[in-house]
Design a protein that fits this description.
With 56 residues, the chain is mostly helical. The protein contains two helices and no strands. Helices cover 70% and strands 0% of the residues. α1 runs antiparallel to α2.
């Protein structure tokens, strides 16, 4: 699995995205970034649960 697709990297990106959202005042943009953070976490969980040889 490439490093940029590892669960740890995706969780780190989710945290960074949330930190960026916290710095914003535009509620719609905060909500959009929260959705992105949740997508990173979902993908990290999915990748962590799959055997490494099944990831393309």
């Amino acid at each position: 699995m490439s490093k940029d697709r590892s669960p740890d990297t995706l969780i780190r990106r989710a945290k960074q995205t949330r930190d960026q959202a916290d710095a914003l005042e535009e509620i719609w943009l905060k909500n959009a970034l929260e959705d992105v953070a949740q997508a990173y976490e979902w993908l990290a969980l999915k990748l962590a649960a799959e055997p490494t040889n099944s990831i393309n």
